[in-house]
Design a protein that fits this description.
Layout (H helix, E strand, L loop, with lengths): L3 E6 L3 H10 L2 H4 L1 E7 L2 H11 L3 E5 L7 H11 L4 E6 L4 H9 L4 E4 L4 H42 L4 H11 L6 E8 L8 H13 L3 E8 L2 E8 L4 H14 L4 E4 L3 E2 L4 H13 L9 E3 L11 H14 L4 H15 L4 H18 L12 H6 L4 H22 L4 H13 L7 H8 L3 H12 L3 H19 L4 H7 L5 H12 L3 H9 L1
Parallel strand pairs: 1-2, 1-3, 3-4, 4-5, 9-11
Antiparallel strand pairs: 6-8, 6-9, 6-10, 7-8
Helix pairs in contact: 3-4, 6-7, 11-13, 11-16, 12-15, 13-15, 16-19, 20-21
């Protein structure tokens, strides 16, 4: 049992001090015993100390026990009352019952009876606290469910209304969502979560928290129109109170049905920490995370560089990251997805990279990156190791390498063929084809076909491209021709290949 405080109110010094000196308070679970000589002094002590248990005489000067108890019930409703008196007439007894006294002890006092009465009072106090805790836990669980439904979006208005009613959560208010997480990954501790909840509760605001994802907690704050400015001030104060957290501040919304969009804006605001890790507080700005028209061409551009100008990869990665940082876009998950595709392509092309312990598994390593700077650092390291392997394994003549480079640059052109390449090299088609086959074992036409199929596989595996787009990017005149060529090369249609890779 939690240690509690007890107040003894009695004008008889002998009785009061005798109890203090005689009873085994520690074994009873009492951590502090306070004394008052009359009802007014008892009221003053109770107002400042708020004792859990009050043992009071009924007959006292200035303010008798019944009058004191009536005021105490209003001031400290959690305090448990225990009366003692030598004058147990009917009227006093009725008053005591009305005030929900736990027990009555008749004077002259007998210590075993006093001790038994105090134990009974403490048991009832603890039972009430336990019931309140259970009720509080139930309300907290219901509010978590409410927050999840509001942030996820649901058409079950009846369920939302019931949960709001049962948890006393406002249904007609302004709402603002805070998305909170630890900087550069990690999860919020229970202490941090309780600190945030206590902060807003202390300032009188109703809140509902969604803790489904431990990496990010979302707090819904409900408030009236007159509190709008105060809430904005308190958000800044909350950031100061919790310096170890990143706060994403969503846009203010009106009405429960808009909370979902408020949550989305809060998550977008918190995601800005990926680009600005030195900050801790981010406000949603309209127009954030605009689409990047270049993204659809990034993979083909990367593959071309990888085969054509691998020495430019580190510089190109830097330029791409600088562009992302300048726009603070796209969303971090999209950045990680794009670079994961790049990294997997490098590892697939140079399998020896997969065995490098310090590089790890690219997808895992990149997901662990909490900032764009970390993504950049990892990709540069991987690209530099790739270049080392490429320079070590390059065994073709300059002429063959130029042909391969030209194919990498122009494979998306449907008219790419041997004669066009030979014209660019200022050689006859027959001579160039013989030289190429002597070194590679295949003709230039076969190499172009293999290169296009290889590129198509990568784009299919990436999962972000339609088959029509892949056909165009890889130099096929139509989607049907692409599907036929792909099946001839792999024994699978593009759709079958995708299903097998995904499965």
């Amino acid at each position: 049992m939690k240690m509690v405080r007890l107040l003894i109110a009695d004008d008889d010094d002998y009785t009061r001090e005798g109890l203090v000196e005689t009873l085994p308070w520690a074994s009873l679970g009492i951590s502090q015993v306070m004394q008052a000589r009359d009802g007014l002094e008892a009221m003053r002590i109770a107002a400042s100390e708020r004792p859990e248990v009050v043992l009071t005489d009924i007959r006292m000067p200035r303010l008798n026990g019944i009058e004191f108890a009536e005021r105490l019930v209003q001031l400290c409703p959690e305090s448990r009352l225990l009366f003692m008196s030598g004058y147990m007439d009917v009227e006093y007894l009725k008053s005591a019952i009305r005030l929900a006294a736990v027990d009555f002890i008749e004077k002259p006092l007998k210590l075993p009876e006093v001790e038994a009465a105090i134990r009974k009072t403490l048991l009832q106090w603890q039972a009430r606290k336990d019931q309140e805790a259970i009720k509080g836990e139930k309300i907290e669980l219901q509010r978590r469910r409410l927050a999840e439904l509001l942030l996820r979006g649901t058409e079950d208005c009846e369920l939302i209304a019931r949960l709001c009613r049962e948890t006393s959560f406002p249904t007609d208010a302004y709402y603002l969502v805070l998305a909170m997480n630890r900087p550069v990954g990690g999860t919020m501790s229970q202490e941090e979560l309780e600190q945030v909840l206590e902060f807003w509760t202390m300032h009188g605001f109703a809140t509902a928290i969604n803790g489904q994802t431990p990496e990010q907690i979302e707090l819904i704050i409900a408030y009236d129109k007159q509190d709008r400015r105060r809430v904005q001030y308190l958000i800044s104060a909350c950031a100061v109170e919790c310096p170890g957290l990143v706060l994403g501040i969503g846009r203010e919304v009106r009405g429960l049905e808009e909370v979902r969009s408020g949550g989305e804006s809060a998550r977008q605001a918190a995601a800005l920490a990926f680009y600005r890790p030195e900050q801790r507080c981010f406000r949603y700005e309209t127009g954030e995370w605009a689409g990047d028209e270049r993204q659809s061409s990034l993979l083909p551009e990367f593959y071309r560089l990888m085969h054509d100008e691998p020495e430019r990869l580190p510089e190109w990665i830097d330029e791409l990251c600088d562009g992302f940082a300048a726009r603070q876009s796209p969303l971090p998950e999209r950045v990680v997805t794009v670079f994961t595709a790049f990294a997997e392509a490098l590892v697939e092309d140079q399998a020896s990279l997969r065995g490098e312990a310090y590089l790890g598994e690219p997808a895992v390593a990149l997901r662990a990156c909490g900032t764009l700077a970390e993504v950049r650092s990892y990709m540069r390291l991987l690209a530099e190791r790739y270049l080392e392997d490429v320079s070590r394994t390059s065994c073709y003549s300059r002429l063959v390498q130029e042909v391969m480079r030209y194919v990498a640059q122009h494979y998306s052109r449907t008219e790419l063929d041997l004669s066009g390449i030979a014209s660019q090299m200022h050689l006859s088609a027959a001579h160039l084809n013989v030289r190429f086959k002597q070194e590679t074992g295949i003709t230039i036409k076969q190499y172009i076909g293999d290169y296009r199929i290889g590129m198509a596989r990568k784009l299919i595996e990436n999962g972000h491209y339609r088959m029509q787009d892949i056909a165009e990017l890889c130099g096929y005149a139509s989607a049907s021709y692409f599907a036929k060529a792909f099946k001839t090369a792999t024994s699978l249609s593009p759709v079958e290949y995708k299903r097998r890779r995904d499965g």
